[in-house]
Write a sequence for this structure.
């Protein structure tokens, strides 16, 4: 049984929270980012609560100041990665509703622009805005979200998420192709029906026999293979597709306008015309 989207998100967050940074500086960075409980607080999420305890004990074990502050500007790349992981766990949320990937951080109004700037520095620019007196930093690009989660250490759960997204995209593409093919088929069936009706009208009043050889050959070919496309009909008759199309358009036009038939009744001789 496949996991629900909510279960998949929780599994991804638990996977990230299980990472134990080896470097003391990374532990300081991640603990700093966890900070005070946010919307998805440690009090509500056991894996994050346990992570906070492990990080604090780890810092005490190496004799570092447990209240040391993290400085993004001077931090190494691995420290920045640890900080971003902690910020996602404390202030980030991931939504997969409706097949759309949406990741956002809910932070203080002052931090929103700062966080957006830091994300831009690592090549993952995000939009930010104020919402109900909170700063909201957002990604709506599945590619950006995947790159970020991979950067901060997501593994198995992210692979499952990406596989599900690929599967959903393939199903969407397949549905679009099938819908397009179905529409094309409906148009072809409708056109063939009109053409057969027009051929029957011209045959009944004798006008079909007066048409150029190409037109009569196309009419006969359409009668024999009503389901054939214009290309298939052209190949069967050894004609250009444009010749087949013009012949069928001529047949439909003549069936709709009986000028030739009126001329015949009035005594005006019909003139055999070359195929346009």
């Amino acid at each position: 049984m496949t996991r629900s989207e909510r279960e998949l998100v929780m599994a991804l967050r638990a996977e990230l929270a299980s990472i134990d940074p080896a470097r003391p500086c990374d532990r300081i960075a991640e603990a700093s980012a966890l900070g005070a409980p946010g919307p998805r607080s440690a009090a509500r999420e056991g894996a994050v609560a346990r992570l906070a305890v492990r990080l604090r004990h780890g810092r005490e074990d190496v004799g570092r100041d447990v209240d040391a502050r993290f400085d993004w500007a001077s931090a190494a790349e691995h420290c920045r990665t640890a900080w971003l992981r902690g910020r996602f766990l404390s202030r980030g949320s991931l939504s997969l509703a409706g097949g759309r990937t949406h990741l956002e951080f809910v932070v203080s109004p002052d931090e929103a622009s700062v966080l957006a700037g830091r994300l831009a520095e690592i090549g993952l620019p995000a939009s930010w805005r104020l919402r109900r007196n909170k700063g909201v930093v957002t990604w709506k690009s599945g590619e950006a979200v995947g790159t970020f989660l991979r950067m901060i250490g997501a593994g198995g759960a992210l692979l499952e998420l990406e596989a599900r997204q690929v599967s959903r995209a393939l199903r969407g593409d397949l549905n679009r192709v099938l819908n397009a093919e179905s529409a094309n088929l409906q148009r072809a069936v409708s056109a063939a029906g009109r053409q057969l009706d027009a051929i029957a009208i011209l045959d009944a009043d004798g006008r079909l026999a007066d048409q150029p050889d190409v037109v009569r050959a196309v009419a006969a070919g359409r009668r024999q293979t009503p389901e054939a496309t214009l290309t298939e009909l052209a190949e069967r008759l050894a004609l250009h597709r444009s010749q087949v199309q013009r012949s069928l358009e001529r047949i439909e036009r003549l069936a709709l306008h009986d000028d030739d038939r009126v001329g015949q009744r009035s005594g005006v001789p019909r003139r055999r015309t070359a195929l346009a």
Observations:
- The first strand starts at residue 92 and ends at 95.
- Residues 14 and 271 are 85 Å apart (CA to CA).
- The chain has two domains: 5-154, 176-265.
